[in-house]
Amino acid sequence: MAGSEAILFNKPVQVSLPGQYHRLFHLDLKRTPLKMDFLIKLIAKVKEWGVTGLLVEYEDTFPYNGELAELAIPNSYSQADLDALQQITREHEMEYIPLVQTFGHLQFVLKHSKFSHMREVAEFPTDICPSKQESLPFIQRLVDQVIQAHKGLKYIHIGADEVVRLGCCLKCQHRVEADFGGSLSSLYLDHVTKVLRYIKNQHPGVTCIMWDDMLRTANPKSMNEFELGQLVEPMIWNYSSDASSFKIRLQPTLWQNYSQVFKTIWLASAFKGAFGSTLHWTPTKEHVLNHLLWLQEVDKEISKIKTITVRGYALTGWQRYDHLSVLCELLPTGLPCLALCLQVLLQGGYSHDILERVSKQLGFTEPFQIEHPKYGDCLSTSDSFPGSDIYTGVQDLVLFEMSSRFKNFVTLNQLHGSMNPNASIATDLPMDHHSVEESAAEAKCLASQLDLIRKRVRVALTTVYHVITVEEWLELRINPILRALKMFVGGGSMDEVKEEDEEEMDVATRPS
């Protein structure tokens, strides 16, 4: 057995006692707030699975106020909601760690005309310009509101990853040459350490965490000159499931370099949202492999560095790749993967016994599939995890799309653009012998199957998500296929079919 398969069945490694390191559940809420009833049930459940804390990334779902009020979407959380979430985490003896971006990934701020003047590049709302006078005070106000909304806060995560247009504006280019001797990383470190010093001075007792990717090319000497190690604990992330790619992402000298700067680090894996921005089914096997690679890295490499302490893991579950991207896998579809990956970390390896035990804990009647879903992955209605009806509904959709019947229909009819109502390009391919009548009958049958799936999923979605998210997901995953099938059957206009979909959604979500 070779490659990733060999990793999957490797002998378990020795791990620390569960109480000696954190296992944070990353709750990515950007543009997609979860209903409070669901969240409260979920927090209690993930505690049972081995989670010791939440890493909460709000973005526009945080209740910003005052001059920042327009950053909050209409269905953002209230302060009372945040108080309730913090209270339940305290009751379960879990850390509550908010994450607020302070450099890159600021689309939720910079997309607004009121704040667009702070962009590094005028055309792109991704990064704030560290050379504009108003940028740092703005970030300070952003951080202040988040910290003040969390009583007894021990940690805050300042993001600071993937600053993709660092040093692009003329002001920054001048500073890089005049102030930092041509070092782009020094421009980055200058802004980040100003944010970190502000937090240390204004909010003593709060320990800062940050993503590490922008530090990987920085010189340890430069990081020490900025006293970075005294200000922050880096969170090293790597979501690769392939051993070679995993190693490439962690440079050979990375741990030695970090050991010269930091005494404490965090590690970040992923349980969903890391293997494709448009996936709607979680590739559990790939995530298990990622966690096994991290176990090996800790066992074989990090443990050799006696001056570094690993505080714990963050199991990330990205809702979107960035603020302006479409939804990745919905959170409930990734929860079985989360539960399994937690056990991989706790047990130091993977086995079918672990899978069976986790499956039973989640309410499956038999071990769930860690690769493609299959018919028979049944859940008990009484013992299943929160959001399991969404998991089942999405599973039905994936199985529908994987079915030979649907694939055969698409193959036969896409030859002439039938599944693309906007296609008007002529083709020289010969007509097949599949009659129009037979195709229409098949399309009608498939449309009926898919419509049933949509109705079930829609009901399930409304128990976890607000209407705007329900509409977004249906329009992204189901409605285009369903409309194409209906068009094939009846030849009605796309607008008419869309109006029908919208009317059905309105009825389904109307208060009783």
CATH superfamily of the largest domain: Glycosidases
Q: Count every helix, treating DSSP H or I runs of 4 or more residues as helices.
A: 19
Q: What would you say the CATH architecture of the largest domain is?
A: Alpha-Beta Barrel
Return the CATH topology of the largest domain. Answer: TIM Barrel
Percent helix? 40-55%
Strand order of the largest sheet: 3-2-1-10-9-8-7-6
Average pLDDT metric? 90
Supply the helix-strand structural class: alpha/beta
Beta percentage is: 5-15%
CATH class bucket of the largest domain: Alpha Beta
Gross geometry: globular
Low-confidence stretches: 415-433
Would you list the SSEs in sequence order as H and E? Answer: HEHEHEHEEHEHHEHEHHEHEHHHHHHHH
Question: How are the elements arranged and paired?
Answer:
Elements: H1 3-8, E1 22-28, H2 36-49, E2 53-57, H3 79-91, E3 95-99, H4 107-110, E4 119-121, E5 124-128, H5 135-148, E6 155-157, H6 170-179, H7 184-202, E7 207-211, H8 220-225, E8 233-237, H9 243-249, H10 254-259, E9 264-272, H11 284-300, E10 309-317, H12 331-347, H13 352-362, H14 388-402, H15 404-414, H16 436-461, H17 467-477, H18 479-490, H19 494-509
Could you name the key traits of this structure?
globular, 512 residues, 8-stranded parallel β-sheet, 2 domains, TIM Barrel, alpha/beta
Plain-language structure description:
The chain has 512 residues and is an alpha/beta fold. It folds into two domains: 360 residues, TIM Barrel, CATH 3.20.20.80; 97 residues, no CATH class. It is 46% helix and 11% strand. It has an eight-stranded parallel β-sheet. Strands 4-5 form a two-stranded antiparallel ribbon. Helix 2 runs parallel beside helix 3, helix 12 packs across helix 13 and helix 14 runs antiparallel to helix 16. The N and C termini lie far apart (57 Å).
